[in-house]
Amino acid sequence: MPAELCLGLRAYICVMETKELEQVASLIGDPSRIKLLWALLDGKAYTATELAVFADLSRPNTSMHLGKLLDAGVLKVSSQGRHRYYSYSRMEIAYVIEAMGSLLPAPSGKISKAGHDPISYCRTCYDHLAGNIGVAITDSLLKNAYIEYLNGTFAVTGGGNEFFSNLGIDMVQLSRQKRPLVKPCLDWTERRFHLAGSLGAALLNKLIAEDLVRPITGSRALQMTFEGRKQLFMLFGLESA
Predict the structure, then answer these.
(1) Exposure of 214 by Cβ count < 10 A (0-12 exposed, 13-18 middle, 19+ buried)?
(2) Can you give the residue ranges of every domain in the chain?
(3) Which one is predicted more confidently, 210 or 101?
(4) Quick one: pLDDT at residue 45?
(5) What is the maximum span of the chain, computed from C-alpha positions, in angstroms?
(6) Segment 27-46, tens digit of pLDDT
(7) What is the CA radius of gyration of the chain?
(8) 20 near 2, Cβ under 8 Å?
């Protein structure tokens, strides 16, 4: 292929990719739509009325924005009785929205009596653990070689399979799921990776089921229980817990 034609083809491909990126950026960069997408980061499905309240929008405006997000494949909707519930169409959307938060200035939210901003300290990111505790657990897993960072992603080691199996997590069943077993997710408050994927979700479910962390109504923040502090110190060496 002549060099001029090759360069022209590359320029054409670049322009087409840029146009697609512009469309996506315009779609999710709208102030009202980013509020709707941010509200869904807790992993729950919400009605249009609930999302309208969160985003402080009129019902017609909310419906218009939700329609655009549905048409673009960013959201999906499911019906239950007379209600329609909106949620992310795929988990990668959550990773993108969470990562966008890393562009914000360092958070300076309300500090709890324990000396922590609850959202920065321990919270959910869609269906997995995030914040200071989520990143600290991920650091511990890397330090102990239970997971490793290779070619821009995480992988579970043989020792990691044994570690998580001993915690009561069914690694065989998780590995059969279509979603990635482990995935790095950029934490918007810590600006480092926490653990996502089916294993990240299973770990959070276990912590909640054993009452080591407790969801806080109306918030993505999680409350650490006394037993949770002990267990996280024993399992991951988290003195900050």
Answers:
(1) middle
(2) 3-89, 106-236
(3) 210
(4) 87
(5) 69
(6) 888 899 999 998 888 888 89
(7) 20
(8) no
Beta bridge partners of 125: 128
Question: Phi and psi dihedrals of 194, rounded to 5?
Answer: -120, 170
Count of CA atoms in the C-beta half-sphere (13 A) of 121:
20
SS (H, E, C) the chain: CCHHHHHHHHHHHHHHHHHHHHHHHHHHHCHHHHHHHHHHHHCCCECHHHHHHHHCCCHHHHHHHHHHHHHCCCEEEEEECCEEEEEECCHHHHHHHHHHHHHCCCCCCCCCCCCCCHHHHCEEECCEEEHHHHHHHHHHHHHCCCEEEECCEEEECHHHHHHHHHCCCCHHHHHCCCCCCCEEEECCCCCCEEEEHHHHHHHHHHHHHCCCEEECCCCCEEEECHHHHHHHHHHHCCCCC
Q: Beta 213-215 vs 153-156: how paired, if at all?
A: unpaired
Token digits of residue 72: 């673009």
User: Which tokens sit at 29?
Assistant: 């960069």
Spatial CA neighbour of 87 closest among 121, 36, 129: 36
Instruction: Name the CATH topology of 3-89.
Output: Arc Repressor Mutant, subunit A (1.10.10)
In sign, the C-alpha dihedral spanning 97, 192, 102, 118 is positive
Take residue 157 and report the two structure tokens written for it: 């080691």
Which pLDDT tens digit goes with each residue over 210-231?
Answer: 999 999 887 889 999 999 999 9
